[in-house]
Design a protein that fits this description.
alpha+beta; Topoisomerase I, Chain A, domain 4; Gyrase A, domain 2; four-stranded antiparallel β-sheet; 5 helices; 6 strands
């Protein structure tokens, strides 16, 4: 019983870590990365469509992304989506391909981005604590229904706390690495 609750909590915590990694991948560092454009949706035949489904994205240089649409008629829609996004990038359209130069980050912008990283990390901490709380609630419910003993309840709570501590440490490590990447000149 306790093992099931622990396994379920661990599975959810792993998913929270993956979600954090996806969020952080979309934060711009000084280098060009196709992951930067992953959250971007383009208006395609009246429906918002992920950019990578309608175009090939490449990083031929450290500070340049190229976007080659499969259908050249979508160039202007892609350009509009980039301009509307909060990426702060200006696309260069030559009629066949969009070049997206990635400017070097200013010190002020780097500090803003580290704050965003900390915000995402804090959201991940909250998600992990909520998962722990739900697991503890499940264990207390089992104890109330006499499915587990009081000792097993306390042991289960300890296991969930250890699991939470382990994943919170992972979140902190991931956030530290991303902050270092952003602050790197």
């Amino acid at each position: 019983m306790i093992d099931e609750v622990k396994a379920d909590a661990e599975n959810k915590m792993k998913k929270s870590i993956e979600a954090l990694k996806r969020e952080l991948a979309s934060i711009r560092t000084g280098r060009a990365s196709p992951a930067l454009l992953e959250p971007l949706k383009v208006e395609f035949y009246g429906a918002p469509t992920p950019l990578q489904q309608i175009a090939a994205i490449a990083a031929p240089e450290a500070r340049l992304l190229t976007i080659k649409p499969y259908d050249p008629s979508t160039l202007s829609a892609i350009e509009k989506a980039i301009l509307k996004s909060d990426l702060g990038l200006t696309p260069n359209n030559d009629g066949k391909i969009i070049r997206l130069p990635i400017p070097a980050l200013t010190e002020e912008r780097r500090r803003e981005l580290t704050k965003v990283v900390r915000k995402y990390a804090e959201e991940a901490h909250v998600a992990l604590r909520n998962i722990r709380r739900d697991g503890v609630k499940d264990l207390e419910e089992m104890e109330k229904e006499k499915m587990i003993s009081e000792d097993q309840l306390f042991k289960g709570k300890e296991l969930l706390q250890e699991l939470t501590d382990k994943y919170i440490a992972q979140v902190d490590q991931i956030a530290q690495t991303k902050e270092a990447e952003i602050m790197e000149v």
